[in-house]
Specification:
about 40% helix, mainly alpha, about 40 residues, single chain
Length: about 40
């Protein structure tokens, strides 16, 4: 499986005690949904 370096950053932001909305943006077909699914 391809390792995405941003998974650690997204996971740490999701697990912060202070909750903020996280927005994942980027061009089409770059793996945004896959990134979010792997971070869960």
């Amino acid at each position: 499986m391809l390792q995405r370096p941003h998974i650690k950053e997204l996971t740490s932001r999701i697990l912060e005690t202070r909750k903020h909305i996280q927005v994942v943006i980027g061009p089409r077909q770059v793996g945004k949904t896959t990134l979010v699914n792997h971070a869960q």
